[in-house]
Structure formats: C-alpha cells, structure tokens
Amino acid sequence: MARARLGMRPLDQLVEIIGQRRSAGNTDKSYTAQLLAGGVAKIGPKVTEEAAEVVEAAAEPGDAGRLHTIREAGDLLYHLLVLLAARDISLDEVEAELARRFDISGLEEKAAR
Question: Given 18, 36, 77, 83, which is the most exposed site by the fewest CB atoms within 10 A?
Fold first, then answer.
C-alpha cells in the first residue's frame, strides 16, 4: 500500500493511486486494477455490498460500532472512487455537483429528478 503524503488530502491521494493502478493495468498485483478491468459489472456489486456494511456497522452500539462504521465508510469511499474512475468521473466533478446543490432545497432537488 502507498504511504500517505504530507500536504495531500487522503481522498486526493487515493484518486491519484487509483489512476496509477488504472494506467499500469497490472491485474496480477493490484486489486484496484482487477476491479477496473471488470468495469461497472464488477465494481457495482462491491459498492452495494460496502454501502450495506456501513449501514449495518452504524447500527452497532458504542465506540466499537463507531470505529467499525469508520472502517466500513473507508471501504465504501474506496470502492466508490474506483467506480468513478471506471466511468472517467473525477472527484472534482462530484464536488461541483454537490456545490451546485447548495442553493437548492434537498426536497426540491429530489422532486426535480
């Protein structure tokens, strides 16, 4: 696993590493490359699985449940970022979409879909 780099946000660093694994395409040594090679058909179920695990962990009581939720959220974010990379969607694009929604009620935004 790559080491954290000072001054770089962990999500940005993870996006960079996913891009490197995508470019290298070495599926023998990289889980990320294996996921990317399988495309949405392989990554999508992992996102679904990890999302369910976050919800299950969040229902666990106390500090142990809290820590479990943090770990599962990390797994979910990783798999979601791999899915975005598979679709050539940048984290900046997702952040821009979230920023666009700041002046819109969540109820209004959902009704407009």
Answer: 77
Domain boundaries, the chain: 10-112
Cα 48 from Cα 56, distance rounded (Å): 13
Amino acid at 86: A
Tens digit of each residue's pLDDT (9 = 90 or more) over 55-89: 999 999 999 999 999 999 999 999 999 999 999 99
CATH architecture entry for 10-112: Orthogonal Bundle (1.10)
H or E stretch covering 38: helix 31-58
pLDDT band at 1 (very low <50, low <70, confident <90, very high): low
| CB distance 82 to 36 below 8 Å | yes
Tokens of 9: 């946000």
